[in-house]
Design brief:
By secondary structure, the protein is α/β, with parallel strands linked by helices. The chain contains 17 helices and twelve strands. Strand 5, helix 8 and strand 6 form a beta-alpha-beta unit. The chain is flat.
């Protein structure tokens, strides 16, 4: 069973990291002092080798303690490798700073700072490589049917299905779900190869067999009155127990908690762009970015303006009311791509493929997203952002907020010219539900880096799009 192997793997990890740190130190010393390009000689113009290597009695324990502090020896079965590599980098940065401080305090000021910098680089690369290799080995072992974690779900619900979906799509985790216990779904019901084994009361016969590594409580909302009883029964058996709430339609992808003097408070939604500093950073980026775009794309906008004027009657700029930040209406600018219509005709619906209202030149502008460029001025004035959920017209907002759960959450941030949904193909006449799903992911996971990623993808995916009519 997996719990019999966990301590073995932890010890192996610690030994591996200690050896890698020592070898990295020796390699860095050899390169720094013994290479043909070295300008120092141990024992003459630098501390002797014995002094340098005696520091390993302090350095190796320091790094192992830091790795433990950064949870590198916890089970990382379901975590992403990039998170583990980032923790290694953080630990090594603190380790390097710690070494410099200790050598300064012990008056060993002649300890080569260049050597320490080289050791930091070599050790970071080597440790990352070792941890990546260890993951690869464990993945191969699990693919062969060993080092598996045996789990059982209690309760058939949306949470149970989502849990099973993730287990099946991540074979590297080594999870095996042996079945589901539920009082309402008939025995023998199968979801993607996982069967309902019987009623929840059968748990009292399964637990004593001691063949499970983990119990996942995935009760539907209607059965939450049994939650306390089941947790007590599972913990009494000593089996690791986790609770997966059936709140998929309510919780964000990364809910966060607050400690109210010992009382855990789960916030339904975390929006990074409600933070004043984040708002300021994004706004500064929008101002600089929109000014640059106006300057860079001014020849294209001039071409679009002249072309629109010469190919059809009506104004060059089309103004339309959209709903933006805090559900407030604003006027959005676009190059006109349709024949002039009455207000009632405009409300009939959005553009579809081969729409007769779109002019030939307008079709070209839409296909290459040139019609959206006047919105750089919306960004400059603050009604829009370069990146964010696309704004909708008032009549569609009224319709969708009643039909699509969490639709109005998108109005907690400024609407954007491009967004996570758009670079993933959900633009124009596509699924509104999928668009909102991507918008919510962006809202809950916003970062400056995420914005740059979307802008980068927009260059390759946003200017020409098959769904833009």
């Amino acid at each position: 069973m997996i719990r019999d192997n966990q301590s073995y793997f932890n010890r192996l990890h610690i030994v591996m990291d200690g050896v890698v740190t020592g070898l990295s130190y020796a390699l860095a010393w050899a390169v720094w002092f013994l290479s043909p390009f070295s300008t120092t000689t141990p024992g003459l113009t630098a501390y002797p080798a014995r002094t340098y290597f005696s520091a390993l009695y302090f350095i190796i324990p320091l790094y192992l303690i830091l790795y433990a502090v950064f949870h590198l020896y916890d089970s990382r079965r379901v975590s992403r490798i990039r998170n583990e590599l980032l923790e290694i980098l953080r630990a090594n940065v603190i380790g390097a700073i710690g070494c410099i401080v200790v050598f300064f305090l012990t008056e060993m000021n002649d300890f080569s700072k260049g050597f320490l910098a080289l050791f930091f680089i070599v050790n970071t690369i080597a440790t990352c490589g070792a941890h990546y290799f260890m993951r690869w080995v464990l993945y191969r072992i699990r693919r062969s049917g060993r080092n598996l974690k045996h789990v059982l779900c209690i309760g058939y619900s949306r949470a149970a299905e989502a849990y099973i979906d993730r287990i099946l799509s991540n074979g590297q985790w080594g999870y095996v779900c042996h079945g589901i216990l539920d009082d309402h779904v008939p025995r023998g019901t199968v979801y993607k190869g996982v069967k309902v084994l019987g009623d929840i009361d059968n748990l009292q016969y399964i637990l004593p067999e001691n063949k499970l590594d983990e119990i996942a409580i995935t009760l539907p909302l209607s059965d939450y009155d049994r939650l306390e009883e089941l947790v007590a029964e599972c913990e009494k058996s000593g089996v690791h127990t986790k609770f997966i709430p059936d709140y998929v339609s309510l919780f964000p992808s990364k809910p966060y908690t607050e400690d109210l003097q010992g009382l855990t408070c789960i916030n339904i939604r975390y929006v990074p762009l409600t933070n004043s500093w984040n708002i300021f950073i994004k706004r500064v980026g929008d101002i600089i970015g929109s000014l640059l775009c106006i300057i860079v794309f001014s020849p294209i906008m001039l071409f679009a303006a002249v072309g629109t004027k010469l190919t059809s009657k009506g104004p060059i700029i089309y103004r339309q009311e959209r709903i933006g930040l805090h559900s407030r209406p604003f006027t959005m600018y676009k190059f006109r791509t349709m024949v002039v219509q009455s207000a009632e005709e405009e409300k009939k619906g959005w553009t579809t493929r081969n729409d007769s209202r779109v002019t030939k030149f307008g079709e070209f502008l839409r296909k290459h997203s040139i019609d959206e460029m006047p919105q750089f001025f919306n960004v400059l004035t603050g009604s829009m952002s370069l990146v964010g959920p696309r704004p909708e017209r008032p009549q569609f907002v009224e319709k969708f907020k009643e039909e699509i759960p969490r639709y109005m959450v998108k109005h907690q941030v400024r609407p954007g010219i491009t967004g996570w949904a758009q670079v993933n193909g959900y633009r124009g006449d596509t699924s509104i539900r999928k668009r909102i799903e991507y918008d919510l992911y962006y809202i809950e996971n916003w970062s400056v880096g995420f914005d740059f990623r979307i802008l980068f993808l927009t260059v390759f995916k946003g200017f020409t799009n098959k769904n833009a009519y």
